[in-house]
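Reading a protein record of the kind used here takes little practice once its layout is understood. Each number in the token line that follows is a code from a learned vocabulary of backbone shapes. One such record is shown here in full, so that the layout can be seen directly:
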Amino acid sequence: MITIPTNYDASLAPEGRQMIFYGSGSPAVDDWSKWEKVLMDSFYSAYPEARGKVLWHRLDTPEFINSFSGETGNIIGVGQTVTQVHEKRPSVVTPLKGLYLASAEAGGHGIGTELAADSDRELFEILTKKG
């Protein structure tokens, strides 16, 4: 997964530079520096023109992510695919009676906090109509 937030807000990086988030699943490893090398080699394989131009990079391990997400290194709770955008996201209403989803991963629109809030609003409207 690669996202480039400076495509939306150029002020996030120095002029003429890009901020890139590059993520992947990871195996259980004892030496994260070896995995970091694998990831950077993979990144440079995809973007050879970036070699020698990266100002800095940081590896966030599953343990680091778990320290604030509490989901064993996983910050996405619903099994997602790359095709799950907008109306193709999981619905807030599931096929199981009484089971609903309201999160930054189901229903709604947008991403992150905006999606979570919109998902909650969508589910609230559905549940209050059922009265």
Q: What stands out?
A: The first helix runs from residue 32 to 46. Residues 86-130 form one domain. The mean pLDDT is 83.
